[in-house]
Amino acid sequence: MSAGALRRAAAPLTAAVLAAALAGCGLSAAPAATSSTGRAPTPRVARSSGSGAGRPAGGWRTPVRAVATFAALYVNWDAGTVARRLRTLARVSIGQARAAMTLEAAEVARDRALRGGGIANSGVVEAVAPVAGHAREYAVVTRERTSASHGAQRDAYRGLPPEWHVTVATVTRTAGGLWVLSGWQPES
């Protein structure tokens, strides 16, 4: 099946998922796909040569891969890894996306409740689709579940269903030909 035919065949499903997410189905998601070790896979980032202050440390070969991998890294974390993951995402992005990841990393690094509660998030990227009429913008739909392993927070998160999230991601092609995120705007 050609890429165009595959895209046309997937369009009704993507539209349905986006419509459900936009209708307010929630904010957190289901368990992430796991590897044979039982842990969420760590997506690979292509490395670029050199990364200055405004230059990303890597990127992806296609815009969809950039968005999907970035999103998978963004939604799968635990209290011990979240700041490091956000700093990694900042290094492989530019512009507003880099600023947002840098700010979030600094905020979660100071969050004692996050560490004290053993809070974790796991999720799957359910859909990535171009936003009609907006070049280089993609709607990202994730399904996520947040949990806590310690104290009162464990009880607060126990039994919560997965929730849907929609984010608008903007991509930019680097001088090296790789795609990186230049915008990351969670909508729900």
Blueprint (SSEs and pairs):
Layout: H1 3-22, E1 46-47, E2 58-59, H2 63-75, E3 77-78, H3 82-91, H4 95-109, H5 112-116, E4 120-130, E5 137-147, H6 151-157, E6 163-173, E7 179-186
Antiparallel strand pairs: 1-2, 3-4, 4-5, 5-6, 6-7
Helix pairs in contact: 3-4
Given as residue ranges, the uncertain stretches (5+ residues, pLDDT < 50) are 1-53
Number of helices: 6
| Mean pLDDT over all positions | 77
**Superfamily at the CATH H level?**
VirB8 protein
Question: Which range best describes the helical content: under 10%, 10-25%, 25-40%, 40-55%, 55-70% or over 70%?
Answer: 25-40%
User: What general outline do the C-alpha atoms trace?
Assistant: globular
**Counted beta strands:** 7
Strand composition percent: 25-35%
**N-end to C-end Cα span:** 34 Å
What do we call the CATH topology?
Answer: Nuclear Transport Factor 2, Chain: A
Task: Report the CATH architecture.
Answer: Roll
- With strands numbered from the N-terminus, the spatial order across the biggest sheet is 3-4-5-6-7
Largest sheet: 5 strands, antiparallel
The level 1 CATH classification is: Alpha Beta
Radius of gyration: 17 Å
Domain count: the total is: 1
Can you write the helix and strand succession as a string? HEEHEHHHEEHEE
Give the structural class: alpha+beta
